[in-house]
UniProtKB/TrEMBL annotation:
Residues 3-234 form the ABC transporter domain. GO terms for molecular function: ATP binding. SUPFAM superfamilies: P-loop containing nucleoside triphosphate hydrolases. The keyword ATP-binding applies. PANTHER family: LINEARMYCIN RESISTANCE ATP-BINDING PROTEIN LNRL. Keywords: ATP-binding, Nucleotide-binding, Transport. It comes from Paenibacillus forsythiae. This is ABC-2 type transport system ATP-binding protein. InterPro entries: AAA+_ATPase, ABC_transporter-like_ATP-bd, ABC_transporter-like_CS, DrrA1/2-like_C, P-loop_NTPase. The keyword Protease does not apply.
């Protein structure tokens, strides 16, 4: 077990920012941490990264108490903060060397590690250029590089792609996948971009009002929360259909009936789109085309919080 939160709590006077959160993250897992603004996810990440002290509860990393063994645990953890934390008058290489020295690296070992990290973040050809001349995306890549200098087993990324160009964003996402795939790195990934979490994370933890309200893979969340998929069927305008008849088909929850289109909300656990299409044909309707959309994390998030991610 790489990370375990046990009844983690953070209070500011009467206000509870994080409310008895318990969570386990396995070795080698990428966990997405989601929540609307003010949900408590940044406070949770700050406590894991030791920049805030909990009011109550416990944090264990690799089986050890963070409170009792902070220095030992920091050696295996890398933090990528939401705000860029670099020395911009220095070059990319100088920044990485500086952070490597803070982790106790020196001499040839430091030089080798800087070369390795520059390859990981894809900035070998820009390593001598001052960070002040970099784009926002390149700065964020150096920021990630600084967090990798100690070869961490646990990497925490707090919204690492905010305000950057698509090329850098794709590079960062691929870097996260590569670190996990090739090095078995455990990653905690917070983001305001739902598609990023879907693309890189094996599980998602959803927080709201300081509480952990949902946890699991996308399929587990869909099943446990009863989130519905959407089947849109174009039909010939001459076809006749009654919404009540369609709603009686297995798995169908709701139907919006238009002259040349049906929009069907479907429980995938109980029915299948192919079965519904066959039933429509047998009833005399002639589908001309259809589109089936699985519920994604955005739908799940809206259902459990009643908000969009940026609310």
């Amino acid at each position: 077990m790489m990370l375990e939160l046990i009844n983690l709590t953070k209070k500011y006077g009467r206000y509870t920012a994080v409310d008895n959160v318990s969570l386990k993250v396995e070795d080698g897992e990428i966990l997405g941490l989601l929540g609307p603004n003010g949900a408590g996810k940044s406070t949770t990440v700050s406590m894991i990264s030791t920049t805030l002290s909990p009011t109550g509860g416990e944090i264990r990393i690799s089986g050890k108490s963070l409170h009792k063994h902070p220095l030992e645990i920091k050696k295996i953890m890398g933090i990528v903060p939401q705000d860029i934390a670099l020395y911009e008058p220095l070059s990319a290489r100088d920044n990485l060397e500086f952070f490597g020295c803070l982790y106790g690296l020196s001499g040839k070992a430091l030089g080798r590690r800087v070369d390795e990290v520059l390859e990981i973040i894809g900035l070998q050809d820009k390593q001598k250029q001052d960070v002040s001349q970099f784009s926002g995306g390149m700065k964020r890549r150096v920021n990630i590089g600084a967090a990798l200098m100690n070869s961490p087993r646990l990497l925490i990324l707090d919204e690492p792609t905010v305000g950057i160009d698509p090329q850098s964003r794709n590079h960062i996402l691929e870097t996260v996948r590569r670190l996990n795939r090739e090095r078995g790195m455990t990653v905690i990934y917070t983001s305001h971009y739902m598609e990023e979490v879907e693309a890189v994370c094996q599980r998602a933890a959803i927080m709201d009002h300081g509480k952990l309200i949902a946890l699991g893979t996308k399929d587990e969340l869909r099943e446990s929360l009863g989130v519905l998929d959407t089947l849109t069927v174009d039909i010939q305008p001459s076809g006749q259909a009654k919404a009540a008849d369609i709603e009686n088909l297995p798995g169908v929850r709701r139907v919006a009936l238009e002259p040349d289109r049906l929009v069907i909300l479907l429980s995938p656990k109980e029915g299948s789109p192919i079965g519904i299409l066959d039933a429509l044909k047998q009833s005399g309707l002639q589908p001309t085309s259809f589109k089936y959309e699985e519920a994604n994390l955005e739908h799940i998030f809206l259902q459990v919080t009643g908000k969009s991610l940026r609310d």
